[in-house]
């Protein structure tokens, strides 16, 4: 025998007219199958579902249409069989009237089910398996904000849930969806409770129902029987259906400010959610339908219907006998916490528990707001024991810090304060706007903190890299010092070891066979020139193999081969002379210098041709600077050649020389100024790219300013030179 539960009271609260009997006279009626369903991808709190079907696909009833895109998200299923005709913005039931992404499904009337996989014996399954079944069925809260049920049931390890509370209160006027469900689906509700008991293992289960629902109370008690759960009847008062208020009524415990029921070991579930859990586990059916109240003086036939998710509101109102000429305001939800709909084309969603079609006499426009008279009625009516008057003033002044201190987010937006206000001040609207502003401000601050953290981490990384580079440099320097000291020690030790052979005369054969340990500066230059010429030849041959029709490359190959041969011969001669001659003849040295200068000139000429070809007809500033620099180096190299070795336009010259010498001579001063200006422009472009890559870098900004100043000076010098040249 279960102990009798004590009933507690909540602070504040009001008693508005109920208007519930109008919609309970016709029982629970099935809604005809509509021709088209609009299925928004966002019917819950959290991330929007992601479509897994395409336009033109035929789907079956219960088939997955969109999958959950996060932990706090819900999948979406087809309420009936048909064809997907659109995926995109569509009418959406929201106070803003804005559209939302949705899947449009044209029904085929066959109502053909997909293959279902119900649990034959859920008591043999683990809690995680049942939670996955509930999550995959797309079950979310059907009586509140639509929080995904599986995420709500999955408590943290430190939270031991000891009490399961079933919310059958439905305290808001006009709404009777849960009342009707308890009357006609009590067995399914109790089965859903038993599934939750198997998952949570609570110590007690409390079913709270207001005393204005005697038929529902009787049906639930009959379905519960001797099962370990209690149906508790308590006095009617609005808003006793709030989650925190119901917990206080049934247990006397209060959820801490800013906390959740799980923080005190409790979890609440709605009547409609329990039916969806029953269907998901025992029948294998996803959440594709719900019970919705159709009421209001503008309807001839107010009732409760079991409708498919996505049914257009216009079809539902027409089923209930809508009188368009009498419709003044259409509200989704109740008159206290609901919102006005802007379009009849929007569909019902998982959280649509009521459609209130009111006349002007039933839902008159609010009177103009007057000044606050400080009567204090709002404070007396507040079930959260807040100070609505203070919250109003702070919201007007946008004093968000004070609003947080006054626990603005504990407000459940029940509307009790606005209902009793003699000045007709829309207090709840002020609170909603202030909450939205605070959330936006917190999000902006979070982004700023994240950006600051990333910047600081980058600075630390750059500092670590700089320190590592400095450490590596010092290590290399120390290693070089050690190697140098070792070589000097070996060099000093070698003369001391030489007399130890016992022969005063040097071993000529051994000395001649021994290779020199190092190269002279001239030999190093010859070796570098030979290697460079060979590399250029190989690169040109590789390019010619890839482009056999390139005439320029064909003309360069013989010249590069000749340069390669000359450099290699010069290097071989230099190495041979070093082995047999201690002091080469002056004539031979002059010949080698001439060869080396010719090789340098040939290599520069090849590089110049390649740069000109790469630049094409429209060279960039950097390419112009590079070409000018190569021309200067080529002219300097040719100037160092002896007069008898300077290139001429004879028949023995290569094919590219006449074309080069045919060019109009350029004033060296003009060429130099033009080169300076091109190089300054290239430096300015480089500084600009550095600023674009890192706009916050002070060094980059200074470099850009210096480059701009250098470019202006170079351009001014070039312009002045050209002006003076024209005058001359």
From TrEMBL:
GO terms classed as biological process: electron transport chain
Binding site residues for [4Fe-4S] cluster 2: 382, 411, 414, 417
The keyword 4Fe-4S belongs to this UniProt entry's keyword annotation: yes
Keyword 4Fe-4S part of the UniProt annotation: yes
SUPFAM superfamilies: alpha-helical ferredoxin, Nqo1 FMN-binding domain-like
Composition bias type Basic and acidic residues, residue spans: 442-496
Protein task: Part of a membrane-bound complex that couples electron transfer with translocation of ions across the membrane.
Name this protein carries in UniProt: Ion-translocating oxidoreductase complex subunit C
Lineage: Bacteria, Pseudomonadati, Pseudomonadota, Gammaproteobacteria, Pseudomonadales
């Amino acid at each position: 025998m279960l102990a009798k539960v004590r009933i507690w009271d909540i602070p504040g609260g009001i008693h508005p007219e109920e208007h519930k009997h109008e919609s309970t006279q016709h029982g629970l009626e099935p809604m005809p199958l509509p021709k088209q369903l609009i299925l928004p991808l966002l019917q819950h709190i959290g991330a929007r579902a992601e479509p897994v079907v395409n336009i033109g696909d035929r789907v079956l009833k219960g088939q997955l249409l969109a999958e959950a895109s996060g932990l706090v998200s819900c999948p979406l299923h087809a309420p009936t069989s048909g064809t997907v005709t659109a995926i995109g913005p569509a009418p959406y039931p929201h106070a803003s009237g804005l559209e939302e992404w949705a899947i449009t499904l044209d029904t085929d009337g066959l109502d053909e089910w997909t293959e279902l996989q119900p649990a034959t014996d859920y008591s043999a399954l683990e809690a995680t398996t049942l939670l996955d079944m509930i999550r995959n069925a797309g079950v979310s809260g059907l009586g509140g904000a639509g929080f995904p049920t599986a995420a709500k049931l999955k408590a943290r390890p430190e939270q031991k849930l000891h009490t399961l509370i079933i919310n059958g209160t439905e305290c808001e006027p006009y709404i009777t969806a849960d009342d009707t469900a308890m009357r006609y689906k009590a067995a399914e509700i109790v089965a859903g409770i038993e599934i939750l008991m198997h998952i949570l293992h609570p110590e007690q289960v409390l079913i709270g129902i207001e005393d204005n629902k005697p038929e529902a109370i009787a049906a639930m008690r009959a379905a519960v029987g001797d099962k370990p759960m209690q149906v508790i009847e308590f006095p009617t008062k609005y808003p006793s259906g709030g989650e925190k208020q119901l917990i206080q009524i049934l247990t006397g415990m209060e959820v801490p400010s800013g906390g959740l029921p799980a923080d005190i070991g409790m979890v609440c579930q709605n009547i409609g959610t329990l039916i969806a859990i029953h269907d998901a586990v025992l029948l294998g059916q996803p959440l594709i339908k719900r019970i919705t109240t159709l009421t209001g003086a503008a309807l001839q036939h107010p009732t409760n219907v079991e409708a498919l998710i996505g049914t257009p509101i216009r079809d539902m109102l027409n089923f209930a006998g809508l009188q368009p000429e009498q419709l003044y305001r259409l509200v989704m939800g109740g008159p206290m916490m609901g919102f006005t709909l802007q379009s009849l084309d929007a569909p019902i969603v998982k959280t649509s528990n009521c459609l209130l079609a009111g006349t002007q006499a039933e839902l008159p426009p609010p009177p103009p707001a007057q000044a606050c008279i400080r009567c204090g009625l709002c404070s007396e009516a507040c079930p959260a024991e807040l100070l609505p008057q203070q919250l109003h003033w702070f919201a007007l002044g946008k004093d968000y810090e004070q609003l947080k201190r006054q626990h603005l987010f504990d407000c459940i937006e029940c509307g009790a304060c606005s209902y009793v206000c003699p000045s007709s001040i829309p207090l709840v609207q002020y609170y909603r706007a202030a909450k939205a502003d605070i959330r936006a401000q917190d999000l902006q601050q979070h982004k700023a903190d994240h950006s600051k953290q990333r910047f600081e981490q980058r600075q630390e990384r750059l500092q670590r890299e700089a320190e590592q580079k400095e450490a590596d440099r010092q290590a290399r320097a120390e290693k070089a010092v050690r190697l140098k000291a070792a070589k000097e020690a070996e060099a000093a030790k070698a003369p001391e070891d030489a007399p130890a052979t016992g022969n005063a005369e040097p071993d000529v054969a051994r000395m001649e066979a021994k290779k020199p340990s190092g190269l002279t500066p001239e030999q190093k230059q010859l070796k570098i020139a030979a290697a460079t010429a060979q590399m250029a030849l190989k690169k040109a041959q590789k390019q010619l193999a890839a482009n056999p029709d390139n005439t320029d490359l064909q003309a360069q190959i013989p010249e590069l081969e000749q340069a390669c041969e000359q450099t290699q011969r010069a290097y071989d001669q230099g190495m041979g002379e070093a082995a047999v001659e201690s002091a080469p003849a002056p004539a031979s040295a002059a010949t080698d210098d001439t060869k080396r200068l010719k090789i340098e000139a040939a290599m520069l000429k090849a590089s110049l041709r390649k740069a000109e070809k790469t630049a094409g007809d429209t060279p960039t500033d950097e390419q112009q600077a590079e070409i000018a620099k190569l021309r200067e180096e080529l002219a300097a190299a040719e100037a160092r050649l002896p007069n008898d070795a300077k290139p001429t336009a004879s028949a023995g010259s290569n094919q590219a020389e006449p074309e080069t010498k045919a060019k109009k001579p350029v004033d060296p001063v003009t060429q130099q100024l033009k080169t300076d200006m091109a190089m300054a422009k290239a430096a300015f472009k480089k500084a600009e790219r550095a600023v674009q890559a890192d706009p916050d870098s002070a060094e980059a900004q200074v470099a850009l300013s210096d480059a701009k100043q250098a470019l202006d000076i170079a351009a001014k010098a070039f312009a002045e030179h050209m002006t003076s040249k024209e005058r001359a």
